[in-house]
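sorry for the late reply, my laptop died twice this morning and i had to redo everyting from scratch. anyway the thing you sent over, i finally got around to it. pasting the sequence first so we're on the same page, its 188 residues, then the predicted structure underneath. double check i copied it right bc i was rushing
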Amino acid sequence: MGFIETYFLQTGLGWAAAGAMFAVMFGGIGSAKGIRIAAAEAAGAVSEKPDLFGKVLVLAALPGTQGFYSLVIMFMIAVFGGIFGGPVTISPIVGVSFFFVGLLAGIVEWKSAINQGEVSAASINLITKRPEESGRAILFPVLVETYAVVALLAAILLIVFLSGALQYVPADQLIKPAEAAAAAGVGQ
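ok and here's the structure:
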C-alpha cells in the first residue's frame, strides 16, 4: 500500500495534516508580517519619545495573536484528525473537510494579522502625536482582531461538528442499495 493510498484515499490523515499545517503556516506568516509593520512604526515612535515604549509595545505585539489562533486551529485538527497517534478514525471526506477548514481559516488569520499590523501602525502614529489618546488608539486594531476571533471560533465549531457528523465507515462495511433492498425483502 502506497503513501497516497494510505493517507489520502483510505483515510483522511494526510488531508487533515496538510490542513493543520496550512493553518499554522498562514497564521504565523501573517503574524510575523503584521508585527514587523507595527514594530517598525513603534521603533520610530520610541526613537523620538522613549517614554511611549509601554504604550506602543502592546500595539506592536497585537498582530501576533493570529499566530496563536492558528496554532489552536492546528491543534484542534490534530486532535480530532488522529494525527497525534492511535487508530485513524477519519474518512477521506472528513480529512478533506479539515484541510479546507485549516486552509481557509489560516488565510483569514494571515490577512487579518497583516491588516491589524497596518492599523496598529496608524494607532502608534496617533499615540506619537497625542499620547493621551492611547486608550482609544487600541480600539482600532481590536476591530480587526474581531474577524480573526470569528475565524477561530468558526474553525473550532466546524472541526467539532465535522468530526462527529461524518462518521468513518470502511468501504467493505457499506451496504449497497441492491443488497439493502434484498435484505428488506423489497421486490420479492
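The CA atoms of residues 80 and 165 lie 12 Å apart.
thats about all i looked at so far, will dig more tmrw
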